[in-house]
Amino acid sequence: MDFRVADLSLAPLGRKEITLAEHEMPGLMAMRARYGDEQPLAGARIAGSLHMTVQTAVLIETLVALGAEVRWASCNIFSTQDPAAAAIVVGDGTPDAPNGVPVFAWKGETLEEYWDCTREVLDWPGDEQPNMILDDGGDATLLVHLAVEAMKTGVRPEATDDDSDEVKVLKALINKTLDEGVDWIAIANSIQGVTEETTTGVHRLYEMLRNESLLFPAINVNDSVTKSKFDNRYGTRHSLIDGLNRATDVLIGGKVAVVCGYGDVGKGCAEALRGQGARVIVTEVDPICALQAAMDGFQVTTLEDALAEGDIYVTATGCKDVITADQMSRMRPQAVVSNIGHFDNEIDVTGLVRRPDVTRVNIKPQVDQWVFDAGTDDERSIILLSEGRLMNLGNATGHPSFVMSNSFTNQVLAQIELYTKHEDYPLGVYTLPKHLDELVARLHLEALGVRLSELTESQAAYLGVQVEGPFKTDEYRY
Ligand code: NAI
């Protein structure tokens, strides 16, 4: 078996963590119980690109229990939990004779290694090709699309000065694979669909649909209510604080925290920071979200205005250049600057690197102090987490199992839908039907001791719904 992880001797620890997580992931365990005999994913060859954590390990083993073959990479250079990765490779074998799933992921990859790992999950042994993608942020999907475009147009991707380091490395990788004769068109043709985990990846899919470049159908898992209104919000409410504490252990109470973006993730961040006793300032571009933040009791102003006060910054926008290098140079002493959005371009780290008046002092892995005008009377510094990459997975271990069980149960249902009913899904981007969204929630109620009320026939008729649901129209926003 081919694989690349940090250290297979970490597998016993990973296995113990996975076993504990299974108890906290009732939705995934219900999927195994419900579909284990039926094997709906038999024949599915899933290329997975999603943070290689303990929770993802339970997802991977659920997909395998339903019949799928899987290859896996992480979707971020810092997010892999090495014990989990090792346990998934070892499976029920031993470190000397692993028999699990090929994983290509470790904490602290270089950009070159990152894209090589993404390529590995699309590169199946022998004549086989992957026939499904499970993506988080869309990098596996992007690699296939850019490589196919290069093959179809005959124009090799060329790095430009405007490209980020990440894009330059991706373009170099595509050229390398084309030199090796990889037939990306055959790979794309064999892919029946992709299920996408996060807001940013979903944006990319809709954009490809709009410009008619999308090559295969997609299910937008993010916009299942039981994903974005839970993982993005309540998951973040937990893991943001975990990331801040493990990185800096700075007291949050009494500080001024600035949250950029008041979407699902921003709402979780703001609530968590207020819960710790911080005074929270929100920045927004959308008047509806700005009004929501104000009604929730947060001060809403621009980042420029917040600079004089902010001690802790968190970007949660999915946008770019939200905090510039110049703004970082004007922050309060030792302000903590972090991003929890999917990509690192929310904070202009490239701009920081390019400034002549700045020096980087590494404090520990994924924590750097950036000092401006060192040695002068004007010396000041900020602390940047995870080089601007998503800090809850870079500095901590991401969302806890119970909330990820909701997200990943949607992923499993989406994989089954697209793989078993692909003729029902012509090229397009879809969300799961409401009854499946409600099913995911239902599977998580018992563990929390929730007792659900039931409509009578006459009440259901009065509301115009079925007794067993769905209870809301697709337009309802929760
Ligand atoms: P969303 O679309 O619900 O919210 C983003 C908000 O940011 C919007 O309200 C938008 O108006 C605002 N915004 C955009 N540009 C802005 C700017 N320049 N200044 C201030 N506000 C701005 O998206 P969601 O679901 O909250 O996700 C945000 C990011 O977090 C995405 O990149 C997503 O992929 C990622 N994500 C990360 C997770 C993690 O565990 N770290 C979990 C889930 C999502």
How would you summarize this macromolecular structure in one to three sentences?
This protein has 478 residues and is of the alpha/beta class. It has helices spanning 11-23, 26-35, 54-65, 82-90, 111-122, 139-153, 165-179, 184-190, 199-210, 225-228, 231-247, 264-275, 287-295, 303-306, 325-329, 349-354, 391-394, 401-420, 434-442, 457-463, and strands spanning 45-49, 69-73, 103-104, 132-135, 193-196, 218-220, 256-260, 279-283, 299-300, 312-315, 335-339, 358-364, 367-372, 380-385, 429-430.
Sheet of most strands: 8 strands, mixed
Count of individual helical segments? 20
The CATH H-level superfamily of the largest domain is Adenosylhomocysteinase-like
In the CATH hierarchy, what is the architecture of the largest domain at level 2? 3-Layer(aba) Sandwich
Structural class: alpha/beta
* First-residue to last-residue Cα separation: 45 Å
CATH topology of the largest domain, by name, is Rossmann fold
Secondary structure: helix percent: 40-55%
Average pLDDT, to the nearest integer?
Answer: 98
Give a topology summary.
Blueprint: H1 11-23, H2 26-35, E1 45-49, H3 54-65, E2 69-73, H4 82-90, E3 103-104, H5 111-122, E4 132-135, H6 139-153, H7 165-179, H8 184-190, E5 193-196, H9 199-210, E6 218-220, H10 225-228, H11 231-247, E7 256-260, H12 264-275, E8 279-283, H13 287-295, E9 299-300, H14 303-306, E10 312-315, H15 325-329, E11 335-339, H16 349-354, E12 358-364, E13 367-372, E14 380-385, H17 391-394, H18 401-420, E15 429-430, H19 434-442, H20 457-463
Parallel strand pairs: 1-2, 1-4, 2-3, 4-5, 5-6, 6-15, 7-8, 7-10, 8-9, 10-11, 11-14
Antiparallel strand pairs: 12-13, 13-14
Helix pairs in contact: 1-3, 1-4, 2-3, 2-18, 3-4, 3-18, 5-7, 6-7, 6-8, 11-12, 18-19
The structure holds 1,4-dihydronicotinamide adenine dinucleotide (NAI).
